[in-house]
Specification:
Elements: E1 5-9, H1 16-27, E2 30-33, H2 34-47, H3 55-64, E3 67-71, E4 75-79, E5 82-83, H4 91-100, H5 104-115, E6 123-127, H6 130-134, E7 140-145, H7 148-161, H8 168-184, E8 197-200, H9 206-217
Parallel strand pairs: 1-6, 1-7, 2-6, 7-8
Antiparallel strand pairs: 3-4, 4-5
Helix pairs in contact: 1-9, 2-4, 3-5, 4-8, 7-8
The structure holds cytidine-5'-monophosphate (C5P).
Cytidine-5'-monophosphate is lined by residues 12, 34-35, 38-39, 94, 97-98, 101, 127-130, 178, 182.
């Protein structure tokens, strides 16, 4: 029997991370934050002073980068041995991640790295193309969204909680721009899989969303 996979795709700020982590914990499954991989590639490309428009060059560095995830109470991400956890959530890194994520060469390099996370007893995979491309054969698929205002507000609160500077209007604008780029790109655009459960979380509490996702798996 193959190892079960639950995919949770959707735009930024829809609550994918919080829901995926909670569901993975409840099920005792592994968790893949694919956005963190794209964000790490973005930081690596900036460190290497790559021209971001050159997909082949960014893909070359993405292929060779030494990236590790340490899963404890909190997730620690190391790039070339350096802890980059604190740099990952910023909207600046998100914007560069969205830029380099549009290159097919970069996506090809990251495909296998993401698929390697499918380990027993199961996997919850969060991203944009988990249910459509990376785990197209997944047993359970969710597309989680919310209004742009609500998503902007959630991202704003998240950054504030982390003690980072945040401007609500700018965050909402940045999120809308990033979503447009993610949805309109040719390769692996952000679209719901045909067989995904579509959940709009604008008027749902996080606990309600978690309960609906768990009901799907159980
Ligand atoms: O989910 P997160 O906001 O961390 O993702 C950052 C960016 O990485 C997204 O805006 C998107 O462009 C890219 N990404 C992607 N495919 C994924 C996960 C993230 O293209 N599966």
């Amino acid at each position: 029997m193959s190892i079960p996979v639950l995919t949770i795709d959707g735009p930024s700020g829809a609550g994918k991370g919080t829901v995926s982590r909670a569901v993975a914990k409840k099920l005792g499954w592994n968790y893949l934050d694919s956005g963190a991989i794209y964000r790490a590639v973005a930081i690596h490309a900036l460190n290497k002073q790559c021209i971001l428009e050159h997909g082949d060059v960014v893909a070359h560095y993405a292929n060779k980068m030494d990236l590790s995830f340490e899963c404890g109470d909190t997730l620690i991400v190391r790039l070339e041995g350096v802890d980059i956890t604190a740099q990952l959530p910023t909207e600046e890194v998100g914007a560069v991640a969205s830029q380099i994520a549009a290159h097919p060469e970069v996506r090809a390099v990251l495909l296998r790295k993401q698929q390697n996370f499918q380990q027993a007893p199961g996997l919850v995979a969060d991203g944009r193309d988990m249910g459509t491309v990376v785990f197209a054969e997944a047993d359970f698929k969710v597309f989680l969204t919310a209004s742009a205002e609500e998503r902007g507000l959630r991202r704003f609160k998240q950054l504030q909680e982390k003690g980072m500077e945040a401007d609500l209007e700018k965050i909402t604008q940045d999120i809308e721009l990033r979503d447009r780029r993610d949805s309109e790109r040719k390769n692996s655009p952000l679209i719901p899989a045909d067989d995904a459960l579509y959940l709009d979380s604008s008027d749902l509490s996080i606990d309600e969303v978690i309960a609906r996702v768990l009901a799907l798996v159980n």
